[in-house]
Amino acid sequence: MASPSGTPAKITQGSRTKGGIGESTLRPDGTLKVTGEFAYSSDMWHEDMLWGQILRSTVAHAEIVSIDTGEALAMPGVYAVLTYDDLPTDVKNYGLEIQDTPVLAHGKVRHHGEPVALVAADHPETARRAAAKVKVEYRELPVITDEASATAPDALLVHENRDDHHAGHVPHPNIVHRQPIVRGDVTAARERADVIVTGEYTFGMQDQAFLGPESGLAVPEEDGGVHLYIATQWLHSDLRQIAPVLGLPEDKVRMTLSGVGGAFGGREDLSMQIHACLLALRTGKPVKIVYNRFESFFGHVHRHPAKLYYEHGATKDGKLTHLKCRIVLDGGAYASASPAVVGNASSLSVGPYVVEDVDIEAIALYTNNPPCGAMRGFGAVQACFAYEAQMDKLAAKLGMDPVEFRRLNAMEQGTLLPTGQPVDSPAPVAELLRRVKAMPMPPERQWESSEGADVRQLPGGLSNTTHGEGVVRGVGYAVGIKNVGFSEGFDDYSTAKVRMEVVAGEPVATVHTAMAEVGQGGVTVHAQIARTELGVTQVTIHPADTQVGSAGSTSASRQTYVTGGAVKNSCELVREKVLEIGRRKFGSYHPAWATAELLLEGGKVVTDGGEVLSDLADVLEGETVEVEAEWRHRPTEPFDLRTGQGNGHVQYSFAAHRAVVEVDTELGLVKVIELACAQDVGKALNPLSVLGQIQGGTTQGLGVAVMEEIVVDPKTAKVKNPSFTDYLIPTILDTPTIPVDVLELADEHAPYGLRGIGEAPTLSSTPAVLAAIRNATGLELNRTPVRPEHLTGTQLSEG
C-alpha cells in the first residue's frame, strides 16, 4: 500500500490508543463468519413459530380474474392465507420514494414473480404446498419490455393512474423520471472537433447475488405491536413503509437488525418485511420467512439494464470538445430507486473528464421486466462502461496512448462538473492513471512457466478446453467517478448514541447506532473511532435497532462518512462531559486540568505534552456519561429539471484499473489474469478493510464484464435464469490477482479526511476488462457481459 505526500487527515484525540483510526484492527464478526458460527437472519428461531410462504405470479403482465384460497386454507397445519382483500388498512402500497408497489397484487400483476398471496403454516413444506394450492386465474396482457413498447402512442400503461411528483415532467407516463443536463453549446463545439466518435452500448441486468437470501422473523407483542428481526440495509426506512400498512404507530413496530449476509443495494427495498408482520399479527404467533435462492431472484430489485448512446468530439491535439449522450435505464415494473439512479447516471455521464459543452438526457422506464433499483455503483456503473469505451475509441482515432489521452483530459480539484458544481476536494485522476499504468505487469503465458503447466492459468480454466495455441493477451485501462452519500437535496444524516462508564474497574465505551452492518465492516470502524476519540481500549457495539435515531442506509458509500461522523461527533461531546467531570473532581489539585487541550489516551487523561493527570476509571467512578447526537454533511440541492444545473453531490471517489486478459479467440474463452487498481481513499481508517472493499468491488465489476446477466425473455418478460446454475458469478477460480495502490489525499470536509470507498472500484473494473478484451481481439464489443459467441461470431440462443 503506497501513499503520496498529500494533505494529512487531522486526528487530534487519542492517536496513540491501540486499535484506533489508521490500524488494521480485526473484525469482531470475522472469525464467526469464516467458521460458519455467525447467526444470520435465516438462523433465527422462536418457540411455537410458524413459517410464511409467498405465492408469486407466474406471468409478467395480466389481469387477476379470481383468487381461490379455499383448498389451501383447508390443509392441516395452515393457520392463515392472505390476499389483497385481507390487508388491514387503506394503505396498501409502499416504496422508497414513490409508493407504487402493492403489498399484494390487486387487479393485475405487473412483473413475473410479483407477490399475490401469503400463507402461514406450522412447517415450511406445508406452507409451500398450501401456497401451490391457491388458485389464481389470469387474463394475460401484452408485455412492455423496452423503450419502443413503453412509449409507443398506443402503449399500455404500466401504472394507469400516476400521481407521483415526477409525473408532471416526463414526456410519457411509462417514463419514471427524466433528467437532462445542458451546458454550453454542443452544436458549436462539434464544429471545433477534428474527430468525432459515436457508440451505442448495452449494459445487462445484474443481480446483487448476496450470500444470504432474504429472511426475517416477526414476533407479535402483548401491546398489539410487532417486533421484526430483519436483514436489511436501512431499519428506519423499512419502519416508515411498514407501519402505515399494518395500521400501527411507528413506536409499536420495533425493529432489530439480524445477521445480514451481504446486500449491495438489494436489501434497500422491502422484501418480506410487511408479509411476515401481517401473518404474525393475523395468527398471533411468531412467523419466519426465508426465501430460497429461486425466490430471491424475484424478491429483490436488480441493477438497471441500460441502453446508452454516446457522441464525443476531440481536437487533433487530444482535447475533448463536447459530449452528447442519451441513457435509457429499464426500471422494470415499480419505481424503487430509479429516480435517484437517473440523477446519478446523468450527472456522472461525462466521467472524470473536463468537457465544457454537454447535452445529456437520462430516463428510466416503467416496463413489465423485473423491478430494478439500487446496486453498488448506482447509475454511475452503466455510464462508466460507455464513456470509457468512448475514450478508447477517441484515443485510437487520434493515434494516442489511451492512458495519456485520459490524463490529458482528466479533471482535478476545482474542475466544474456538467452540473456547474465545482469539485472542491482532491481529484487525482491523472495520478491514479499514472500509478496503475506503472504497476508491474504479470508474466506472460503463466501456464508455460518452469514450474510446470497449470491449466487453471488458461482461458477455460479447469475445463481445459484450450491448450493455449490461439491465446492472445490484451491490456486495457479505465477510470471512473462515483458520488458519495445521498444527493439532490436529500436530508442525509445519521445518529449515534455513545455511553462511557466504568465496568469492572475499567472505562468502557458503548456505541449504539441503527447502522446496518451488511459485511462492510462498519462495526469495526465505529469501535476504532471510539478508541481514538475517547482513549479507551474496551468498546462495545450495541446491536442496531430502531430504539436509536436513524443511521440512514448502508449504501452510497456513506456509512463511514455519515454514521462514522455521527459516532465521532457524539464521542467528542462525551469527551467534553468526561473532562468536565474531571475538572469538577480533580481540577483543584492540578492546574493543568483547567487547560482546554486535555486528551484521552489509553484509559488516561493527559495534557497535550503527555503529562498524565488521572486514570479515566477514577474520573468516571460513579458516573455514566451518555450522548445521542445527529451529524449531517453539507447540504446538497436538486438538479434543475430543465438544465440539470445544481450542487447535487457531497463528495466524489475515484478509482482506476488496468486489466490484463488472455483470450482464446477461436473458442471465445476469456481469462482475466490481473485487475490492478489505484484508488484515492482520503484516509484509510482501517487499511485491511479498505483493501477488502476495493478487491470486492473489483470482483463484482469483473462479474458483469464477462458472466453475470439476468436474462429476460423479450416476448414474455419472464426471467429465464433465476438460479446460480444459470446466473453465473465469479468464484475464486475466476478472480484474478488484484494488486492495489492506495492514495490518501484528505478531503477537508469529511471526518478524518476520509472518502467513501466501496463503489468506485465497481465502476472502472468492468470497462477495463472490456478494453483489454478489445485489445486482444480487435472487436468492438459494445455490450456486457461478453459471451463466447461475441468473440467468435457464433450465434447462440439467448440464455
Q: Per DSSP, what share of the residues sits in E-state strands of 2 or more residues? A: 15-25%
Secondary-structure class? alpha+beta
Helix run count: 18
- The tally of strands reads 28
Strand order of the largest sheet: 3-7-1-14-11-12-13
Give the C-level CATH assignment of the domain at 425-486 and 650-792: Alpha Beta
Q: Which of globular, elongated, flat, extended, rod-shaped describes the shape?
A: globular
Description:
With 799 residues, the chain is an alpha+beta fold. Among the domains are: 30-38 and 493-632, Aldehyde oxidase/xanthine dehydrogenase, molybdopterin binding domain (Aldehyde Oxidoreductase, domain 4, 2-Layer Sandwich), CATH 3.30.365; 41-141 and 213-260 and 267-299, Aldehyde Oxidoreductase, domain 3, CATH 3.90.1170; 425-486 and 650-792, Aldehyde Oxidoreductase, domain 4, CATH 3.30.365. 24% of the residues lie in helices and 24% in strands. It has 18 helices and 28 strands. The strands form seven sheets. The protein has a seven-stranded mixed sheet with strand order 3-7-1-14-11-12-13, with helices on both faces. Strand 19 (493-503) and strand 20 (506-512) form a beta hairpin. The longest helix is centred in the last third of the chain and has 28 residues, at 559-586. The two termini are 41 Å apart.
Describe the protein's topology.
Blueprint: H1 30-34, E1 50-56, E2 62-68, H2 70-73, E3 78-82, E4 93-94, E5 101-102, E6 108-109, E7 115-121, H3 124-132, E8 135-140, H4 147-151, E9 175-183, H5 186-192, E10 195-203, E11 215-220, E12 226-230, H6 235-246, E13 253-257, H7 273-283, E14 287-290, H8 293-299, E15 306-314, E16 320-330, H9 338-347, E17 357-365, H10 380-398, H11 402-408, H12 429-438, E18 471-484, E19 493-503, E20 506-512, H13 522-534, E21 538-541, H14 559-586, E22 598-601, E23 604-607, E24 612-615, H15 616-620, E25 625-632, E26 651-664, E27 669-680, H16 687-706, E28 740-743, H17 760-777, H18 788-792
Parallel strand pairs: 1-14, 12-13, 16-17, 20-21, 27-28
Antiparallel strand pairs: 1-7, 2-6, 2-8, 3-7, 4-5, 9-17, 10-15, 11-12, 11-14, 15-16, 18-26, 19-20, 19-25, 22-23, 23-24, 26-27
Helix pairs in contact: 6-7, 9-10, 10-17, 11-12, 13-14, 16-17
